[in-house]
Input
Amino acid sequence: MIFLKKKIGGEPPNIFSYKCKLFLNLKEEQKIYFCSSGREAILKILKHENINNVFIPNYYCYPVFSLIKNLKGIQLHGYSSQKELLSKIKKVDETKKKLIILLFFNGMQESLEEYEKFINLDSKSIITILDAAMTPFLTLSKFRFNYLITNPRKFYRFPFGSLIFCNPDKKFRIIYNFNPIENIEYLFVKVFSRVLLNLRINFLERIGLILNRYAEKKVPLKSDLFTNFFLKNLKFKDLRKIRIEQHNLYHQLLKPISNKFIFLKQASNEDCPFGFMIRLKNREKLVKFLSKERIFVSILWQIPKYMIKDFDFETIKKTEEIVVFPIGPQYSRKDIEKVCKLTLNFLKNEINL
Output
């Protein structure tokens, strides 16, 4: 078949299809810095703070894990629980500079407050990054952090840019270069791939997928003056309301399998979820079944085979079981209802899921 029916999931809609408005809910006492990617933001903080040890969640974006692991002079410590994190912190020399990355998912505010109880956030040797790439509306978070990183490109239609929030007393400085070619190349390939992925023509979508994979391997790690100016003047649309409505619609319609929900609480105005997450055994069967209906779910985070040895069993198990259902303004209520209906019908016929 050359021409295809509407796709649900996969890439966001075309970036040229709407007018944006500015919506960054900043606290007055916070500074904001612009980077070309989340990876660049983390690298800038590591260098600025002269970090010796990095504590990172085992269940985390593997490209960032791999990037830090290969940096000279930095020791990487994975952790899967508060208890394990505290134990590993105690084993590191107190005078060594330590950076703790905390991952925020929808519904984890209580969990962060638990971390705050036992991490000495006033220690000059401890620096914290709150990674809010999965939920950008976090400037209202009560958790005390040194830096907050969020990637609007995961939520908005423009596939570029990362934001760093920090307190005014932080003399944080980003040095920009004068060569925008690398960033422009990435941006051009990414945008072009999205255009192709939004067409309903089979062979063009296949080309778009190839280009998108290529672009993800070329994520910029350096900002330049041109892209910095561009990002500062980019208007981001507030998509919080519709995302919360759709997230809670999944919560309602998939109630028969609520025991498989990652987060039991519904989304609220204090959060803007990335997608609706469940955990299933034999996830790949569901992914394959939905793809035949042109429904493309996401998975977090698929670890390459050459990195398997770096992760524990529980982390690997999670990467094989988590499913993220799509939400966003490009989907209607009927689209969400269709995804839920097909998912429930599929699970009724499956054993031990």
Remarks:
- The chain is about 35% helix and 15% strand.
- The mean pLDDT is 80.
- The first strand starts at residue 8 and ends at 9.
